[in-house]
Specification:
Elements: E1 2-4, E2 23-25, H1 28-39, H2 55-59, H3 66-77, E3 83-93, E4 99-107, E5 112-116
Antiparallel strand pairs: 1-2, 3-4, 4-5
Protein name: Phage protein
Length: about 120
């Protein structure tokens, strides 16, 4: 599959050498789609308001277990076409309330990769 290529720093569209909107192909496109899916707030997608994590409803400003977030992130990653398995690894939860980690995933063709958040 292909997806629009996003700049890793600004998360904005990128142009190719011909000045056209760049596209990403597998397996990077799957990793980028997982990262995008985890960044979406529930209800934020205009054409499918059921997509995304319930950040406002159940995550931000709530005292909840890391295991609940981990399960929600893994379930969201599994909704991306081409993902066979997904495991969320939390690498940081600082006093500044910043959460860091990665999704380790395997595609349906057996490729294993990770994408940070």
């Amino acid at each position: 599959m292909q997806t629009l290529l996003l700049d890793r720093t600004t998360w904005d569209l990128v142009l190719d050498s011909g000045g056209n909107i760049a596209v990403a192909s597998d397996p990077y496109s799957i990793a980028q789609d997982i990262a995008s899916a985890i960044r979406v707030f529930l209800g934020e997608c205009w054409y499918d308001t059921g997509k995304g994590l319930p950040y406002r409803q159940h995550i931000l400003g709530r005292a909840q277990s890391i295991s609940i977030f981990r399960a929600q992130a893994e379930a969201t990653a599994l909704t991306v076409p081409g993902v066979a398995t997904a495991r969320c690894v939390i690498t940081a939860l600082g006093t500044d309330r910043r959460l860091g980690g990665a999704i380790l995933f395997t595609t349906t063709d057996g490729t294993t990769q990770s994408v940070g958040f």
